[in-house]
Task: inverse folding
């Protein structure tokens, strides 16, 4: 018991060290970009530490979830395919059941520990974007193109996190009427970020990078304070046409790919149970590919493929 507590304490100190390192890097980057006067809010420091602490558990959750789907599918394909009609050996069946149980328990444990990583992804994306701006700000002439490309990449990732902030915050119900207004506000924030990014092509790049970093720091501060409907001040967003969320297009692509995959599986001649297992696995993999960590919230799409009464 004392050994377990010692290991946990050592791991906790290491995780706090990683979080503190992120905060220290953020401080240096902000100073380089001309924001030495801006104190990093305590809640942002806590959010960065939580994101660092939950990074590994979330990775293990995703790994366990994929392995669970794979193990179930392989079992049904083998047992109900080539070995159909034969009695499965009891010790193989027991080993499969134990493995599935262990993977399910691992999913439950790691998902709970990894949720802070998802909820603080916007804050982490803001830190990475500020870091990219700081590196481009201090880059030599030869390195400048590569560093500016990295700024654009970081901004694209940040945009996705901004558009999903109302879902990942955990404070807005799925069918809440607040979602429409929050989505429109997020679209305006993304439009402002893109406007600031275009200044890199016609304004002094040092000033443009500093402006981008200031906007991103404001977004992070507002988000950790729970003001997901005011990520940027209203005066900065006046007249900005909200950027459309491409989630509907991705959802349509998911429906088409899932339907095409299931139709293709019909030609393999698998038993009904195996078809259901393989079809489910294919559908989950498509959702993971298109929606990333947010794939589980789109599981209701399976309702479209249920047979009629």
Result:
């Amino acid at each position: 018991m004392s050994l377990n507590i010692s290991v946990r304490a050592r791991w906790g100190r290491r995780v706090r060290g990683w979080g503190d390192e992120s905060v220290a890097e953020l401080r240096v980057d902000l100073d380089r970009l001309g924001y030495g006067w801006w104190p990093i809010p305590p809640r942002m420091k806590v959010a960065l530490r939580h994101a660092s602490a939950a990074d590994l558990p979330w990775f293990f959750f995703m790994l366990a979830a994929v392995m669970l789907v794979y193990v179930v599918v392989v079992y049904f394909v083998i047992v109900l395919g080539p070995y159909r009609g034969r009695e499965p050996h009891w010790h193989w069946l027991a080993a499969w059941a134990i493995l599935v149980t262990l993977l399910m328990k691992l999913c439950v444990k790691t998902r709970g520990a990894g949720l802070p990583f998802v909820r603080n992804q916007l804050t982490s994306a803001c830190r990475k974007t500020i870091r990219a701006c700081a590196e481009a700000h201090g880059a030599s002439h030869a390195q400048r193109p590569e560093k500016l490309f990295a700024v654009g990449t970081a901004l694209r990732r940040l945009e996705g996190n901004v558009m999903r902030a109302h879902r990942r915050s955990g404070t807005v119900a799925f069918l809440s009427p607040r979602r429409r207004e929050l989505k429109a506000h997020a679209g305006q924030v993304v439009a402002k970020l893109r406007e600031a990014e275009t200044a890199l092509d016609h304004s002094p790049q040092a000033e443009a990078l500093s402006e981008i970093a200031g906007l991103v720091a404001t977004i992070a501060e507002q988000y950790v304070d729970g003001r997901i409907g005011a990520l940027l001040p209203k005066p900065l967003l006046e007249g900005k046409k909200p950027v459309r969320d491409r989630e509907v297009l991705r959802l349509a692509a998911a429906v088409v790919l899932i339907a095409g995959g299931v139709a293709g599986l019909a030609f393999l001649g698998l038993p009904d149970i195996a078809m259901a297992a393989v079809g489910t696995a294919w559908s989950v993999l498509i959702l993971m590919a298109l929606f990333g960590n947010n794939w589980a919230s789109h599981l209701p799409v399976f309702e479209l493929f249920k047979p009629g009464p």
In short: The mean pLDDT is 78.
